[in-house]
Each structure stands twice: as C-alpha cells, then as structure tokens.
Design brief:
- Keywords: Coiled coil, GTP-binding, Nucleotide-binding.
- It comes from Noccaea caerulescens.
- It is a single chain.
- Helix 2 packs across helix 9, helix 3 packs across helix 9 and helix 8 packs antiparallel against helix 9.
- By secondary structure, the protein is of the alpha/beta class.
- The radius of gyration is 20 Å and the shape is globular.
- It is 52% helix and 12% strand.
- It contains 9 helices and 6 strands; from the N terminus they run E-H-E-E-H-E-H-E-H-H-H-E-H-H-H.
- The chain has a 6-stranded mixed sheet with strand order 2-3-1-4-5-6, covered by helices on one side.
- The protein has one domain: P-loop containing nucleotide triphosphate hydrolases (Rossmann fold), CATH 3.40.50.300.
- The structure holds guanosine-5'-triphosphate and magnesium ion.
- Guanosine-5'-triphosphate binds next to helix 1 and helix 4.
Length: 287
C-alpha cells in the first residue's frame, strides 16, 4: 500500500475529442468511471477525476478532460475547464498524457492542439509529456506494429518524440487479456516515474496554477476560521458567501486564461499564414 506521506501523482489526459482519452483513463484506473463512446460531438464535456492506488502502491489521480486544446470549443468554455483541471491537480501535474488514435489520421489539428498546449503552458510542458496511442487491437488486426505505423509519421510528431524523450505507449482499451492490461499500465507508470526522476520529483506548475492553489487554500483557511468563530446556525450561510467569493475569483482567472487563449489562437493563425507563405512547414515554431 502507499505510505501516507507519498504524494498523489496527477496524470492528466489531453488530446482531440474522440481519440480515446476516457477509454485510456478507464484502462489506467481499471474500472469504467469515465464515459467513453463514439459520438460525432465530444462525449466528455467537463474535467473529471478519479483517484486510485496504482500497482506498486503509489496513489494516482487520473484527470480526464474534454478536447481542451483543439480550439473547436469556444475559448470561454475551454478556459473554465483548464482552470478546473488545474484546480483538480492541486500539487501540479506529474504527467501530461497526449492521447492520439491509430484509428484516425494524425492531422493538422493534432499539431495545432499541441502548439496551443505549449503556448499556454510553455515548452517546459514537454518534459512531462507521454504520448499514448489508442487502438492497439486495430493495429494487430492490420498486422501492423506501432513502429511500422509510425514509419510514415508526420515531422512534427517525430520532433515531439525527440523532445519528450520518446515516451510513448500503445494502449489496447478493448482488451480482455489481463497481462496486456497490466503491461500497458506498467509501461505508462514507468514513464511517469522517469519523468519524476528527470524533473527531480517536482511536478509541473505555472503561474495560473499557483494562483488557483493560493485561492483554494485561502478558501479552506477562511472556512476553518468560520467554523471556529460562528455559531452552527450561521456557518452554512458564511460558507455559502465564501464559496460565492471563491467562484468569482476562479471566474476571474478563467477570464484571464480566455484572453491568453484568444491571443494565442490569433498569434498561431498569423504564424501559420506566415509559414505557409514561406513554403512547407517543418514543425510548430515555438518548440
Ligand atoms: N478499437 C478500439 N477502440 C477504442 C480504443 N480506445 C478507445 N476506443 C474507442 O474510441 C471511441 C472514443 O473513445 P473516448 O474514450 O470516448 O474518446 P475521448 O477522447 O474521451 O472523446 P471525448 O470525450 O469526446 O473527447 C470509443 O468508441 C472507444 O470505444 C482502443 O484501444 N481500441
Ligand atoms: Mg472523453
């Protein structure tokens, strides 16, 4: 079992809608908690989290997200969800799992969403990145391996592999084979451990993250003080007022994030136009 002092490892799943984030989340936690399915529009609409004890005893907190960085969703919705996601990973992110699917073509949208992720969080995010490919079963039925599938891999993805230390895992989210289930989880957790070693055990955080954490800690402290100071009949009302104030502050942060997303998106579009005018693109220029 995990020792009480062992920190929770936050693992967030990101990627385009329909790539299999929720299915991968369920495989990692070994139960069906996140809703996964084939719908034309996004299945997961808000960030969700589930905490479990991983094989080996560490506690992992898996965060499933909607397609946050594909920018099909409106910036105000994305920004609120990113703030929620960061609040769910209070101590920071121990791994960011980019979920791709071998069942669909890797398109420019994948590249765009990775660029957006970096624009918002900086290139440092790549130090925490693991790429998961879903649909191992489909590769098997086509007599393909991940290596053969990736032999025609787009240039930007090759660069990502180099930058993220070639941390990639093939997932079989429909498998009934217990060995295969254990193996894929272990491969992922080995990468999470390698990320921890490489980053001296320090999880990824950034300015917005720290602000959210401070705000959450402030709320907890004031709730505790209210419990000590007020009569039982008044506490609920005070807590409600504190919660309203907390939500207002979180919304303010989401609005700040929304501005960053809008600017990032406009910059990105401008940059694409410049690069397209220059000839064939090699990779996202911010890496
Ligand atoms: N054959 C096969 N199908 C998979 C695999 N992983 C996911 N899928 C299917 O892919 C579809 C989409 O999966 P989801 O887990 O809902 O994808 P998502 O990324 O969470 O999608 P959104 O919540 O809409 O962003 C579902 O029909 C899954 O069953 C896999 O390893 N093999
Ligand atoms: Mg989902």
């Amino acid at each position: 079992m995990a020792s009480g002092s062992e920190p929770v490892k936050n693992i967030v799943l990101v990627g385009r809608a329909g790539n299999g984030k929720s299915a991968t989340g369920n495989s990692i936690i070994r139960r069906t908690i996140f809703t996964s399915g084939s719908q034309a529009t996004g299945v997961t609409m808000t960030c969700q989290t589930f905490r479990t004890v991983a094989p080996g005893g560490s506690i992992i907190n898996v965060i499933d997200t909607p397609g946050l960085f594909d920018l099909i969703t409106k910036p105000d919705v994305i920004s609120k969800e990113i703030v929620r996601c960061l609040a769910l990973a209070e101590e920071g992110l121990h791994a960011v799992v980019l979920v791709l699917s071998v069942r669909t073509r890797i398109t420019k949208e994948e590249e765009d969403s990775l660029c957006t992720l970096q624009i918002l969080f900086g290139a440092k995010i790549l130090d925490y990145l693991i790429v998961v490919f879903t649909g191992g079963d489909e590769l098997d039925s086509n007599n393909q391996t991940l290596e053969s599938y990736l032999s025609e891999c787009p240039e930007f993805l090759k660069n990502i592999f180099t930058l993220c230390g070639h941390r990639k895992v093939l997932f079989y989210n429909r498998t009934k084979d217990e060995d295969q289930k254990n193996r894929q989880i272990q491969q992922l957790l080995d990468h999470v451990a390698a990320i921890g070693r490489r980053n001296f055990g320090i999880p990824f955080t950034e300015k917005m993250h720290r602000q959210i954490k401070e705000e959450t800690m402030r709320l907890r402290k004031e709730e505790k003080e209210a419990e000590a100071r007020y009569r039982a009949t008044e506490i609920e009302q005070v807590k409600m007022r504190l919660m309203e104030e907390h939500e207002r502050k979180m919304n303010e942060m989401a609005t700040m994030m929304e501005d960053v997303i809008r600017d990032a998106w406009e910059d990105h579009q401008r940059m694409l136009r410049v690069i397209e005018n220059m000839g064939p693109r090699k990779m996202c220029n911010i890496m």
